[in-house]
Automatic annotation (TrEMBL):
It comes from the Eukaryota. This is Terpene synthase metal-binding domain-containing protein. InterPro entries: Isoprenoid_synthase_dom_sf (IPR008949), Terpene_synthase-like (IPR050148), Terpene_synthase_metal-bd (IPR005630). Keywords: Metal-binding. One of its GO terms (molecular function) is terpene synthase activity. Residues 33-148 form the Terpene synthase metal-binding domain. It holds the Pfam family Terpene_synth_C. Gene3D superfamilies: Farnesyl Diphosphate Synthase. One of its GO terms (biological process) is terpenoid biosynthetic process. Signal peptide: none annotated.
């Protein structure tokens, strides 16, 4: 015996969640294209959709939409860091990037190679926007954003 009303509600809920997840992916895709990282970091893997799918496993409830978006951005950057450190940069370039991340300011980019300067500036800009958004939402932990990345 099945209850058709419950089945109909489940289908509606599925459609609503699917629309929400598609809207999140649209937002993230626009952010990703705006970064233009593929133009400057051709060696980096484009794993943004995969990261969003992973975040759906972490924060699946609809009210955590902003958290999914932010975590997807974090882990997309972490994936690119992984590509830089493991596949592309020299040991000296890796050390320079690590020191820049520890300093966390625009002046630290002066010693980085061109492709790293571009990436580093995008990371700083994105994290500042996220911290500002969290602060405007009244989140008391907005100052921890840079600690999550560095």
């Amino acid at each position: 015996t099945r209850n058709d009303a419950i089945l109909e509600l489940a289908k509606l809920d599925f459609s609503i969640l699917q629309a929400l997840y598609c809207e999140e992916l649209r937002t993230l895709t626009l952010w990703w294209k705006e970064l233009q990282l593929q133009d400057h970091l051709s060696f980096a893997r484009d794993r943004m959709v995969e990261m969003h799918f992973w975040m759906l496993g972490v924060l699946f409830e609809p009210q955590y939409s902003y958290g999914r978006i932010v975590l997807t951005k974090f882990f997309t950057f972490i994936s690119i860091f992984d590509d830089i450190y493991d596949s592309y940069s020299t040991l000296e370039e890796s050390r320079l990037l690590t020191m820049a991340m520890e300093r966390w300011d625009e002046q630290a980019a002066e010693h980085l190679p061109g492709y790293m300067k571009f990436f580093y500036s995008k990371v700083l800009t994105t994290m500042k926007v996220i911290a500002k958004d969290l602060d405007s939402q009244g989140n008391k932990h907005a100052d921890y954003v840079k600690k999550l990345v560095s």
